[in-house]
Design brief:
This protein is α/β, with parallel strands linked by helices. Helices cover about 25% and strands about 30% of the residues. It has one domain (about 25-240): Rossmann fold. It is built from 6 helices and 14 strands. α1 (about 40-50) packs antiparallel against α2. The longest helix has 20 residues, at about 60-75. Bound molecules: uracil.
């Protein structure tokens, strides 16, 4: 696996020899068991290349972001508990299968996290979705909770926390504290994210060792304005404004 200091790796299809494969920058690696990075497939790298490109127009940005969000949600669901369930097929045979155990809900960190809600709805019909708005307090420069609307029985649910860009992690950290304050055990929180900074994700994963992070990519770092680099700019602006 590649690291931030040696970020170029071959990612072509498996049937091609190493010499024939195109090389690409792949995700950095962090040494935390509770951080799962999506497989760095040619498909994922091509989708990320679309949304990272400053020349990609809004409609394409939305389309390709949604494809990555779908991959994140599908992978996230694999981290939820299942129990055995045997069913009978129309030809009278038994199939020893599985079913999800427990109720889930989504919680988006506004505004950018709301862009991930549809991807969750596409996979989980009628899923309950709550919202949390955290912004920087102008006086203290610290993240401040401005608004939350969460399912009243959230303490009994698995929570898929949604935020596409994980920079310093201030908002995500506060969102987890809010959820824990409502009685959600840390181990029932799954944080879904498109691009993370190594410093943000490292602090977060160490602070909350029992929750799980599913991300598509860990980038090189943060710039002086706390934008993720190479990043994709402001996700909310690119998703919501023309
Ligand atoms: N939020 C964004 O939208 N982009 C960044 O690079 C960091 C935070």
């Amino acid at each position: 696996p590649s690291t931030a200091s040696a970020p170029t790796q071959c990612v072509g299809p498996t049937f091609k020899g190493v010499d024939e494969k195109p090389s690409a920058t792949v995700s950095a690696v962090v040494p935390f068991d509770n951080v799962y990075v999506l497989p760095q497939t040619p498909q994922l790298i091509a989708l990320l290349s679309m949304i990272r490109n400053k020349d990609t127009e809004r409609a394409d940005f939305i389309f390709y972001s949604n494809r990555i969000i779908r991959l994140l949600v599908e992978e996230g669901l694999n981290h939820l508990p299942v129990i055995e369930k045997s069913i009978t097929t129309p030809v009278g045979r038994t199939y020893n299968g599985l079913m999800f155990q427990g109720k889930i809900c989504g919680v988006s960190i506004m505004r950018a996290g709301e862009a991930m809600e549809q991807g969750l709805r596409d996979c989980c019909r009628s899923v309950r979705i709550g919202k949390i708005l955290i912004q920087r307090d102008e006086d203290t420069a610290q993240p401040k909770l401005f608004y939350d609307k969460l399912p009243e029985d959230i303490a009994n649910r698995w929570v898929l926390l949604l935020d596409p860009m994980f920079a310093t992690g201030g908002s995500a950290t506060m969102a987890v504290e809010v959820l824990k304050g409502r009685g959600v055990p840390e181990e029932r929180i799954l944080f879904l994210n498109l691009i993370a900074s190594p410093e943000g994700i490292t602090t977060f994963a160490a602070k909350f060792p029992r929750l799980k992070v599913v991300t598509a990519f860990i980038d090189e770092g943060l710039d002086e304005k706390n934008y993720i680099v190479p990043g994709l700019g402001d996700f909310g602006d690119r998703f919501y404004t023309i």
